[in-house]
Amino acid sequence: LEKDALDSFESAADADAVEETRVRFLGAKKGALKDVQKMMGGIDPSDRKAAGMRLNAFKTKLQESFEASQSRLGGGEASGIDPTFDATLPGIRPNVGHIHPITQTINHLMEIMGRMGFEAAEGPEVEDPWHNFVALNIPEDHPARDPLDNFYLATASATQAGSEGSQLLRSQTSTVQIRVMEQHQPPIRVISLGRVYRPDAPDATHYPMFHQMEGLYVDKHVTMANLKTVLRVFATNYLGGDVQIRFRPSFFPFTEPSVEVDFLWNDTWIEFGGAGMVDPAVFEAVGYDPEKVSGFAFGLGVERLCMRRHGITDIRDLYSGDLRFLRQF
Ligand code: PHE
């Protein structure tokens, strides 16, 4: 039996043959070894000890022979190695996520403005009409408060959309100017980066949610020249090269004078947002004395900045969730 078993293990040509041999000799139910074990009962008690020792030695031998044949064939459970494993194949890379391009842009903008001494401030995305409109010198009958141009919320406290009580998703980050000035005295030098909402139909350059970078600088003797310098230094840092900047006359209820801000980039003037000198009515709304302080404010489109810098042509790509697009940044 021993020779038969050892020969079988030795000559087994593949894993199946090894397994078959294992079952035939070492099998827990019908293995030949089991039969031998059963015969132990019939052995004279005086010989039983010696017989048991021989049986154990035999068993060990078979086990060793089995393991040897397994490793000879380079497989089997005992070796712990999957026979189909090929160490020379390229590995499977784990999927590592990364930061969304808009968040990357926000971080970059905060860093650039931080170097010029602007601290980051935050405000809520659900706003009341006071911070989104009234304190910003936008009275109740102003077209900017039209329910068709804003996302008013259907809350319990809402009376008529657009009226004093109704909350809305902020349509501009200028709300944070008010919140900061209500809580702090000048000098103030802050930026606020966050989402704003307007019911625009999505196309290549519009999306009902986008981000703005609001800037506010309030101190004694702040001038339009300071505003222009800050924006030029900012644009030069963010877009690279010596970016030229242009102001075009405009109107915002909360700045006087007001301008549209264009940057010259690759020989084209592109509008990035609005700016101006803080209107005295805004200072009065937050309890500042307009005779004693002056300041500038600006609001730039974050998507626009990000898209320019990375050559993105459709804002919807940023929010499609398409990993083929997002993985490029
Ligand atoms: N809040 C304005 C907008 O959303 C931009 C702006 C900010 C203009 C600050 C002037 C000063 O278009």
UniProtKB/TrEMBL annotation:
Cofactor mode of binding and number, as noted: Binds 2 magnesium ions per tetramer.
Major subcellular location class: cytoplasm
UniProt subcellular location: Cytoplasm
Keywords associated with the record: Aminoacyl-tRNA synthetase, ATP-binding, Cytoplasm, Ligase, Magnesium, Metal-binding, Nucleotide-binding, Protein biosynthesis
Record-annotated membrane-spanning stretches: none
GO BP term, pick one: phenylalanyl-tRNA aminoacylation
GO cellular component: cytoplasm
Cofactor(s), names only, from the UniProt record: Mg(2+)
Binding-site list for Mg(2+): E256
Record keyword Ligase present: yes
Domain Aminoacyl-transfer RNA synthetases class-II family profile: 102-305
KW Cytoplasm (keyword) present: yes
Reaction equation(s) it catalyzes: tRNA(Phe) + L-phenylalanine + ATP = L-phenylalanyl-tRNA(Phe) + AMP + diphosphate + H(+)
GO MF annotation: an example: magnesium ion binding
EC number: 6.1.1.20
Enzyme class, broadest EC rank: ligase
PROSITE patterns for this protein: AA_TRNA_LIGASE_II
SUPFAM superfamilies in the cross-refs: Class II aaRS and biotin synthetases, tRNA-binding arm
Quaternary structure note: Tetramer of two alpha and two beta subunits.
Family per similarity comment: Belongs to the class-II aminoacyl-tRNA synthetase family. Phe-tRNA synthetase alpha subunit type 1 subfamily.
Protein name in UniProt: Phenylalanine--tRNA ligase alpha subunit
Gene name of the record: pheS
